[in-house]
Amino acid sequence: MVSESEGVPAITTRREQALTGLQALISKGLGWARKYSLFQYPFVTACCGMEYMAIASARYDLDRFGAALPRFSPRQADLLMVVGTVNCKQAPILRRIWEQMADPKWVMAFGVCASSGGFYDNYATVQGIDRIVPVDIYVPGCPPRPEQVLDGIMMLQQKIQDQAHKLIEKRSLPAAPAERRGG
Amino acid sequence: MSQAVIGALQERFPEAVYDAYQGVGGDDCVFVHKERIVEVCRHLREVERFDLAPYITAVDYLGAEPRFEVVYNLLSIPRSARIRLRVRVPEGDDCVVPSVTGVWRGADWFERYCFDMYGIRFSGHPDLRRLFMYDEFVGHPLRKDYPLKGRQPLTPEREVHDIFRGPGPATRD
Amino acid sequence: MSDSREQTHPGGAGVDTQETPGSFGAGEPVRPLPQAPARPESDLDAPLPAKRMVVNLGPSHPAMHGVTRAVVELEGETIRSMKLDIGFLHRGFEKSCENVTWGQCFPYTDRLNYVSSIMNNVGFALAVEKLCRLEIPERARYLRVLTSELHRICDHLTLVGAMGLELGAMTVFLYAIEARDVIWDRLTELCGARLTSNYARIGGVARDLPEGWREKALATLERVAELRDEIDGLLTRNRIFLDRTRGTGRISRADAIELGFTGPCLRAAGEPYDVRKAFPYLVYDRLEFDVPVGSDGDNFDRYLMRMEEMRQSDRIVRQCLEQMQPGDIIVQDWRYALPPKPQVYGTIEGVMAHFKLVMEGIKVPAGEAYSYTEAANGELGFYLVSDGGGRPYKLGLRAPGWPMLAALPHLTKDALLADLVPTFDSINMIGGEVEQ
């Protein structure tokens, strides 16, 4: 389930969106499975990385949320945690990694620099990664306390549970790479 | 200790160094003409044993003539002495300083930083490229006439509804 | 993959990449790879044709070191040359600091070496105080040293943990992070934040020790010592660790000095230079501690340096806690330090001083100064230029990790690709300070 479908029209009718009873059951089941087995891609850049290390360790254990195992390949990950400041030079790389991830995928903006640029309002920093990739959950803080991040993960899990998951999804392919790069 | 070094420098290179002074906190500083900086540094390294690669930075005195100044902070470990060399560099075509990478290999990235951030070129540098900014960046960010928020985005940015800046394209700042 | 970067970037309108020489891969012609030699008559005697392979160790590192791109030319598994591409975390520290007041620079300095932020704060505060010719009170000095050393322990723990993690010893990582968390708990009680402490102020420190902190800190030091001994037992005589780190990333003493190394990496190469002993600042001349010096300059020596420095920092912290006397924590001069709240609300001078300090900032006399401290990674230098106003005119930073990162191609020349991992770990490149 893509976090924001960039090709879907803005207005859909309720009937198109509604799930039948069986579909709702499947959606709940898939939602449960997906939320408790998040494979993160920790896109660690800066100071928030230290808090990320703290969360991944024994005290503020991320494993109890099912989100312990980082997968350092975007093809194998479904949660892109953008940890730390993203600057203009890093932005194309972030975009590329996000594009390489397969659906369903979610993006967490970890820290204030990823959410909105932080206090680096200058020539070098992207003012929030939502200018580059669609974001599902923003965890502010400089750096956020581990409890705050865990709260964010729990909210994300709630969001995943509430999304409509289907067994078979038909989506049109995104625009061809050459056209997009020209734009 | 470092005053003795400055004294020796003034004797050895009388026309290359000028305006020696003692700065705040006992820092010993001297101005050096930019054409002679390599000789002075070589002398300092080989004879006076300032063998640790210096911290080289640049300052933009916008409005003053010459505009830039390249500052070398040297340290001698065996003698526990520090001195500072200041080189004034005008802007324009003459914004070139001979590189001291022949004297200390570790000066390489510091000079690249000065080039990237201020636009000061170093002749004789093995690999003068930008260090921090990306290739498509135009300009030198730490110059005083470069705006703080002069953004040059690399990727096309999505539209974001920002409550502080209001609706509109993300590049409008 | 190395030249794919030029294809993904939309070229900026009208920018001629040949004019501004850029980083590797853009604007440079693609280098032809060396051709395999023609096969001679006798196939049995012929050398196997080999081509060099260029591999991109991209900016999104699995190792949590921040973002550095290394383009490595490999012959088999041996690194023949490496080119580093940095700047992926350049956040405009210097330019940001030129646009805020002197006191507002402290959060920016926190985020330089983010594993040991108090040392950056203290370094910057010392530089400004040098320029203002301020003398800070005794207790403030002890507090600065105390917290700096605690953060030094945190930095070394992070390094040892990350080194263990990347060489496969994941338990070491968990112990190190636990030890670091315990210290951070104490620092949270003191500074308010775990990581980016913003503790030093110009003229002193922000807060005094809370009640009972001293006893808790001593208990913390005991716990950290236990965990550190566990880590020592797991790594120092471990066959795998020794094989991976002994003899790799070696540098000679003369080379280290020429390349600008300072701190533990220089001392591991054999040069006994420590700013705390050579140019003592704050209260280091009253404290007893040793400075370990290595001999080989390889990764194992750098690791041992960090372990030993943690023990010495522990000693320093205990001595500070004993020697510290009650007193002022910030200079009582309202031109530099905020007046106490009763004065601000009670007297007109207090209100005025508070207003001017917050709105306009401290007026630092015009001039320039270079101030240096021994950060966890080496000599941290701040070169300040002031024009007499409330904002820095120039704030230059000599990052301790910078020369070590610049020397990485030299350290890994003709080494195996797998040796790059412990080398990159042990030089402790922190992205925030190197890329400012």
Summarize this entry quickly.
With 183 residues, chain A is of the alpha/beta class.
Q: How does this structure look, described?
A:
Helix content of chain A is 36%, strand content 10%. Chain A has helices at 14-17, 21-35, 48-55, 91-100, 112-116, 146-162, 177-182, and strands at 40-44, 79-83, 106-110, 137-139. Chain A has a four-stranded parallel β-sheet. In chain A, helix 5 (112-116) links the parallel strand 3 and strand 4. The longest helix of chain A has 17 residues, at 146-162. Chain B is α/β, with parallel strands linked by helices and 173 residues long. Chain B has a domain at 3-95: NADH:ubiquinone oxidoreductase Nqo5 subunit (Beta Polymerase, domain 2). Helices cover 18% and strands 24% of the residues of chain B. In chain B, the strands form two sheets. Chain B has a five-stranded mixed β-sheet. A two-stranded parallel sheet of chain B has the order 6-7. The mean pLDDT of chain B is 86. Residues 1-28 of chain C have low confidence and may be disordered. Chain C is built from 18 helices and eight strands. Chain C is globular and about 100 Å long. With 436 residues, chain C is an alpha+beta fold. Chain C has one domain (54-434): Cytochrome-c3 Hydrogenase, chain B. Chain C has helices spanning 5-8, 93-97, 106-110, 117-132, 138-166, 170-191, 213-235, 239-245, 253-259, 264-268, 275-278, 299-323, 341-346, 348-359, 401-406, 408-411, 420-426, 431-434, and strands at 53-57, 69-75, 78-85, 200-201, 204-205, 367-375, 378-386, 392-398. At the B-C interface, strand 3, strand 4 and helix 3 of B face helix 2, helix 9, strand 6, strand 7 and strand 8 of C.
